Amino acid sequence: MWRNVDFIAILVTLLLFSTACTAENRAHSQKKAIAMNKQILVDNLRDHLTMLTHTIGERSVRLPQNIEKSAAYIQDQFEEYGLLVERQTYRYRDNDVSNIVARLKTSDNPSVHYVIGAHYDSVSGTVGADDNASAVSVLLETARAMQTIARTGKIDLEITFVAFALEEPPVYGTKYMGSRVFAAKAKREGTAIDGMICLEMVGYTCQDPGCQRYPFPMQFFGYPEEGTFIGIVGNVKSLQFNRALKRSFQRNPNLPVETLTVPFDGWILPSVRLSDHASFWSEGYRAVMVTDSAFFRNPHYHSSADTMEMLDFDFMAELVVSLKTFFSQKRLP
Known about the structure:
By secondary structure, this protein is of the alpha/beta class. The protein has one domain (2-327): Zn peptidases (Aminopeptidase, 3-Layer(aba) Sandwich). Helix content is 41%, strand content 17%. The protein contains seven helices and eight strands. The chain has an eight-stranded mixed β-sheet, sandwiched between helices. Strand 3 (113-119), helix 3 and strand 4 (158-164) form a beta-alpha-beta unit. Helix 1 (2-56) crosses helix 3 (129-150) and helix 3 (129-150) packs parallel to helix 7 (313-327). The radius of gyration is 23 Å and the shape is globular.
């Protein structure tokens, strides 16, 4: 009798041990898969940055051939992902330039439509790694991820991915900005946009206390002293959109997020208007800027030192994860 009891006890112990080992192995496999997927994402981001900043290089208006090379590369990537792509071409000085527009529509009548965009030009004299090849790379990898998810049929939305042709000086603030051309056309045609996400400089981090700076008087509002977070900046009209993004982003523990809502479309704090989201504010659309805070963090802003070797690829990969999480929600705001 005791032998039978001992045998049963041993058997139960072995089964429990086996179950524990199986669970541990499963968890280990999941962690390994996540690590492998992230490494693939980092490698893809690195490939985009290499193409834009090393192979092509400076993408300013003084080198229109490089602007076209960038446009062609971005278009090829979108088409490779299986997205519907079109060029929104317009004339600047003696050259044609193009916004590259890719559309992802998961149903005939999607419940929500978002625009996410980034400018692909650089300022004269720099290859513009953080400003703004980092954002273009995140845009491309977000498009790739969402096209993959869309094939599962589990999401209901429309996303328009836009690479804007021109944003940097001397075009900034003029009607020739790619985002102004796009937003004005959308308004004229009555295009419904539930929210626009502008990706502007999203690749630089700094860990030293005090390395993160802020426009006056934001330094007194308790924001972090280290530059390891992603920022979301919106106007009052975009408040609910801003909050929804923050709630979604907070589900990613690997990417801290801070938000700011500015009154009067940011005119009282001009530095928060310095990108493509402001073109959408001007047309009455909800829009936010997602950013590493540009020159308030990155000392290489608009200089020849803005190279891909200065960037944090893990940081950019986590931003893709956060954007994918937002767009994949069952109930979008």
